[in-house]
Amino acid sequence: MKLSFKIGSAWGIPIELHLTFILLILAVLGYAVYFNDIYSFTLIVFLFVFVLFHELAHSVVARRYGIKVRKIVLYPIGGVSEIEEIPENPSIEWRMAISGPLTSVILGAALIAIYYLVPIPLFHPSSLVLSSGNLFSDLGYLNLLLGAFNLIPAFPMDGGRVFRALLAERMKFSDATKYAAYIGRIFGIIMVVVGLLFNFVLILIGVFIYIGASEEAEQTIVSTTLASVRVKDVMQSEIGAVRPDQTISEALEIMFKSRYHDALVEKEGIFQGIVKWNEIIKIAKDQRSSLRVEQMPIKNISTYPDEAVFEAYKNMIKEKIDLLPVVDKQNPTKVVGVLTSETVAGAYEKARNK
Ligand code: ZN
């Protein structure tokens, strides 16, 4: 089920609202109408416009360093910029992380300056948010709060990313992540405890930080550990190949025996490519004994023994295949092994338990 909806884009970056966020806005709108408190509604809508500016700052800096930003999603407790990959270069990471809070602080200061310089009539103070009744002053302080709060060194919040980048300049990236995530989880627990006493929203943020720190740390540690594993370390060396002149039924038998989900095609020992499972399964049962492998679309795709498993696996996901032939670099028509999702999963388990 799709839970977030695109509302537009900026600099080519799609901006989406999460369903829970839309529900929050509707709830606040209902409240505002019922209690005749339009100011609360206005304030919250504007606050999220500024949260969006905060996220756009992260995204713009990321793009400057050539990192692709998939989208920005707004949740009730803030925004998230989904980037393609976390930079392992500390100087890029801290710049990206700090740009958001810095933007919030600068915008907050500017709004407060406007409040002092320009006389603006007061509204009735909001009953939902602690407020002065002046839109500029309220938004100014909320932006300062947004900036300051995000600077708490609780990974994966912005401050925690800056903290990890500082650590990563002194140690291995995976170790830096481990320590930053450890501190992040402690902050998460503190926030839940403080939240139980004072503020419900803080409990949500605390839980979000605790889970986020654990998940991202595990992903990072596994991917950095997997990065050092080569295809030749985990590939299967028994190869179950089918010939182009064999029938689909014969191919299925060989695939079943070698436990492949796609068919590896070889002609007189020369690598031809693979036939995808989802192509084979389309063939009606009564045609499988007459149709030959060579009549199927054969995809020429392979990897080398020295390639990182992590990269090879990314390629398998992209191509939606379950079997990646490994060919000799000097002689790319000779298959020396195969990589399957199972072998990659095995390597992943090993890396995780290291
Ligand atoms: Zn941020």
Describe the model.
This protein has helices at residues 19-34, 38-64, 90-117, 135-150, 158-168, 173-197, 200-226, 231-234, 248-258, 277-280, 309-319, 341-353, and strands spanning 4-10, 13-18, 69-75, 78-83, 241-242, 263-267, 270-275, 323-327, 335-340. It folds into three domains: 4-151, no CATH class; 166-226; 231-353, CBS-domain, CATH 3.10.580.10. By secondary structure, the protein is of the alpha/beta class. 35% of the residues are buried. It has a four-stranded mixed beta sheet. Strands 5-6-7 form a three-stranded mixed beta sheet. The model has no long low-confidence stretch (mean pLDDT 85). The protein contains twelve helices and nine strands. The structure holds zinc ion (ZN). Zinc ion is lined by residues 54, 58, 100, 150, 158.
Query: Tally of extended strands?
Result: 9
Number of structural units classed as domains: 3
List the total number of helices. Answer: 12
Bound compounds:
zinc ion
Q: How do the strands line up in the largest sheet? A: 1-2-3-4
Structural class by secondary-structure content: alpha/beta
Strand residue percentage: 5-15%
CA(first)-CA(last) distance: 36 Å
Main sheet makeup: 4 strands, mixed
**Rg result:** 27 Å
Quote the average pLDDT: 85
Instruction: List the uncertain runs.
Output: none
List the helices and strands and how they pair.
Layout (H helix, E strand, L loop, with lengths): L3 E7 L2 E6 H16 L3 H27 L4 E7 L2 E6 L6 H28 L17 H16 L7 H11 L4 H25 L2 H27 L4 H4 L6 E2 L5 H11 L4 E5 L2 E6 L1 H4 L28 H11 L3 E5 L7 E6 H13 L1
Parallel strand pairs: 2-3, 5-6
Antiparallel strand pairs: 1-2, 3-4, 6-7, 8-9
Helix pairs in contact: 1-2, 2-3, 2-4, 3-4, 3-5, 5-6, 6-7, 7-12
